[in-house]
């Protein structure tokens, strides 16, 4: 389990580094274009591909923390057993979608093995490989969530949080009744 936590800590650090790289290159390019009427050709590609990588790696983090968008208005009204069954169904669907994404990404990596980006000369197969990593990690997390829901149903709680309801609960105590 320790390696598991280290892996996700590494992902968090990697996301921070990638965000910093993207911000630096975009800011630098804006300054150079505005002040010197020139720019760095490679900075646009670096920023674009860093953003794509951040999106796919961020999806792994969102899956781990159960922060993907969901409409749980109906599911929250289910009894606990219904919530568990709903969670299992959603995670099975996610797992199937990740298998489809992985298989399509493998095909893209193979098809684009000779192609390179225009400025940096990076192989497109490297760029498409992030889809494979993301789909495998999200698939593993979906299997873990299914396993935990089946193995420990008494510890299951609906992960998605309703920020609006929390806000109303917090404000209930602050509101004073006016006579």
Automatic annotation (TrEMBL):
GO BP annotations of the record are: C4-dicarboxylate transport
UniProt keyword annotations, A-Z: Cell inner membrane, Cell membrane, Membrane, Transmembrane, Transmembrane helix, Transport
Pfam families reported in the protein's UniProt record? DctQ
Task: Report the domain of life of the source organism.
Answer: Bacteria
Please provide, alphabetically and separated by semicolons, the GO molecular function terms listed in this UniProt record.
Answer: transmembrane transporter activity
Subcellular localization(s) per the UniProt record? Cell inner membrane
Provide the Gene Ontology terms for cellular component: plasma membrane
Q: Which residues cross the membrane?
A: 12-34, 46-63, 84-106, 126-148
Q: What InterPro entries does this protein map onto?
A: DctQ, TRAP_DctQ
In what way does this protein cross or attach to the membrane?
Answer: Multi-pass membrane protein
Q: Which residues form the signal peptide?
A: none
Residues in domain Tripartite ATP-independent periplasmic transporters DctQ component? 22-149
Query: Which family is it part of?
Result: Belongs to the TRAP transporter small permease family.
Record-linked PANTHER family: 2,3-DIKETO-L-GULONATE TRAP TRANSPORTER SMALL PERMEASE PROTEIN YIAM
Q: What is this protein called?
A: TRAP transporter, DctQ-like membrane protein
Q: What is the species listed in this Swiss-Prot or TrEMBL entry?
A: Anaerococcus tetradius
